[in-house]
Amino acid sequence: MRSETVSTKLHQLSEQARRHPERVFTALHHLIDIEFLQEAYLRLRKDAAAGVDNMTSAEYAEGLVERLTELHLRVHENRYRALPVRRFWIDKEDGKRRPLGIPALEDKILQRAVQMILSAIYETQFHDVSYGFRAGRSAHQALSQLRESCFECEVSSIYDADVSHFFDDIDHCQLNRFLDMKVKDGVVRRLINKWLKAGVLDGGVLYYPANGSPQGGVISPLLSNVYLHHVLDEWFVNVVQPRLRGQAFLVRFADDCVPRALNAASAAGGACCT
User: Fold this and answer.
1) Is 23 strand, coil or helix?
2) Running DSSP on this structure, what letter comes out for residue 252?
3) What pLDDT, in 10s, does the model give residues 140-199?
4) Which of 35, 40, 257, 267 shows a CA-CA span of 20 to 30 A to 108?
5) What is the pTM of this model?
6) How far apart are the C-alpha atoms of 134 and 126, rounded to whole Å?
């Protein structure tokens, strides 16, 4: 059963962000109480693979409240330590392999809690052009929007673009500068930095990448959207669109793009989508 108290907290936070778009949030960690952590646990996929702790969701459920109480205490006493993510590789259709990172279960719970809070804030800031990793939005909707835009205007060319190794190459310093614009709660920011610097266990080898947020991590999709919101979406909406003649379109899902250009007789424009 979902918590009405948690839903109320998130709704109130979202309303604050919507009514005061210039606000920088400095007090958020008090929202993460035992009930909030329990809701975060309930929102996790129960069939997900275990991380380096080898703890499954079913095992953690035994004595759940006691476990979450102890986790909550460690976080607020700054004794919580993030574990390295377990990396495994999945085959892609083009013959290449994609790396995925699996956090330990308690890291997943905390990441989900922070993701819930940040989403309540950033969903009021994100542009409509973004479809990836957002509640109520999907790749099918992104493709539908692209198709509708193509039908409405004469399209002369479409280009497929991709940010190479995006999740692995996210610049931590730049990401932190973007987060500074909205979130300066010390506890929340320390948690994020612990996850970014937790390390990766790949085939028995532990290493600490200077950049990146592991694809597969609970918090990574939200962090990637924050990053792309500033470097792509904001740029397109606030810089590119005002300089173009006529309409211009952008539809983005994650970091893959398909720019669309109108023919020479039409107003210049474009669209992006995975």
Assistant:
1) coil
2) B
3) 888 888 788 777 766 666 666 677 788 889 999 999 999 999 999 999 999 999 999 999
4) 257
5) 0.88
6) 10
Task: Report which DSSP code applies to 195.
Answer: H
Q: At 142, phi and psi to the nearest 5?
A: -60, -45
Q: Read off the tokens for 102.
A: 């699996």
C-alpha 101/C-alpha 185 separation (Å) is: 26
Report which of 146, 141, 132, 138 is spatially closest to residue 254, judged by C-alpha positions. Answer: 132
Which sign, positive or negative, has the C-alpha torsion 244, 248, 250, 256? negative
Nearest to 236 by CA among 142, 162, 126, 108: 126
Which residues fall within 8 angstroms of residue 218, CB to CB, at 6 or more apart? 44, 103, 107, 108, 111, 112, 115
Instruction: With beta carbons less than 8 A apart as the criterion, state whether 222 and 126 touch.
Output: no
Maximum average pLDDT range among 97-101, 110-114, 202-206, 265-269: 110-114
List all residues 6 or more positions away from 193 whose beta carbon is below 8 Å from its beta carbon.
Answer: 172, 176
Q: Using DSSP, state whether 22 is helix, strand or coil.
A: coil
Q: Which residue has the tokens 């993460």?
A: 32
Distance CA 80, CA 86 (A): 19
Do 41 and 59 meet the contact criterion of CB atoms below 8 Å apart?
no
- Asked if 246 and 240 touch (Cβ cutoff 8 Å), the reply is no
Q: Cβ(114)–Cβ(226) under 8 Å?
A: no
Q: Which residue intervals of 43-135 are DSSP H helices?
A: 57-61, 64-76, 105-122
Gyration radius of the chain over CA positions? 20
Is residue 227 within 8 Å of 249, Cβ to Cβ? Answer: no
Helices 34-42 and 105-122, axial angle in degrees (round to 10): 100
HSE-CB of 43 using CA atoms within 13 angstroms:
22
Say if CB 85 and CB 201 are below 8 A apart: yes
